[in-house]
Amino acid sequence: MVEQEAGLRAVDLATVFPGRLGRPAAVAVDRVNLDVHTGEIVALVGESGSGKTTLARTLLGLERPTRGRVRFDGRPLAYSMRALRAYRRRVQLVLQDPTGSLNPRHTVYEAVAEGLRIHYGTRPDEQELVADALAYAGLRPPERMFLRYPHELSGGQRQRVVIAGALVLEPEIIVADEPVASLDASVRGEILALLLRLRDELALSALVVTHDLGLAWNIADRVAVMYLGRIVEIGEVDTVLTAARHPYTQALLSVLPESPATTPTVLSGEPPDPARIPAGCRFHPRCPILESGRAERAGVAERCRTEDPPVLDGAGGHQVACHWAHAVS
């Protein structure tokens, strides 16, 4: 893929939540570098608790980073109310649950027009803009949808209305948090095809947050795999998902139906706790490579237990934060 300008960039980003009742602070995002280029779809993948939703919220300005910065269009994100308001016209959020995102008392027209009214007040071309957004989202003819309510729509139609509500502001980037997780399998493909069409026709960039590597395979240009607040592998989707180098990525891939693995890899140990990040490689307590003795044979077992791998720079190329992967490559 040709290197493009990064429209949205996380630079050494960290988001830490203070502990309560004597608990240590939770490091939800830990020194992350990530670029989303113009006209590119990046999938951010990981288990629940890996920090991917907090990273998305920090990129949107909904959480203020403890360290590092968010850059958009070549400039650091400012956190004044006015600056965030302008930023959110250009970077829009699409939530996982369309039912929860839509006010049941608002018609489709009101739901889509809400963003316009918040940012621009009354506009003489409001009806035209709402119709265009609904049409782009695949709800045609759009005028037929204007007076319908969310309970009258299917799950796929509701998700398209949510997407139209983002598109009406003509954003440059959308951040989609599990955009098809609550939809039937028959509808998932339609929504993914819609996101691809929006990228191709509108040059719309997207950061798609998901736990599903299969979804990433179908939609993304690049994939970033996140574990316990840190991106541990990143690269072009075909490269990462056909030649994964990090044991965590390999374990996630092993459970996909199309995986060549004969048996799924079951991770041992406790699920990640951002308040208790282990010393050394943060994945080492659950790492099947370390457990099987392969890290020992490669001469890196002690480094796995005591030395934190370098932070990935988040730019181009296939990168991995793993002592064993570098030792055997």
TrEMBL record:
Family annotation (InterPro entries): AAA+_ATPase (IPR003593), ABC_transp_ATP-bind (IPR050319), ABC_transporter-like_ATP-bd (IPR003439), ABC_transporter-like_CS (IPR017871), Oligopep_ABC_C (IPR013563), P-loop_NTPase (IPR027417)
Sample GO molecular function, one term: ATP binding
Pfam families: ABC_tran (PF00005), oligo_HPY (PF08352)
Domain ABC transporter intervals: 8-253
Keywords associated with the record: ATP-binding, Nucleotide-binding, Transport
Gene3D superfamilies to which the protein is assigned, alphabetical: P-loop containing nucleotide triphosphate hydrolases (3.40.50.300)
Family of the protein in this entry: Belongs to the ABC transporter superfamily.
Protein name: ABC transporter ATP-binding protein
Native species: Lipingzhangella rawalii
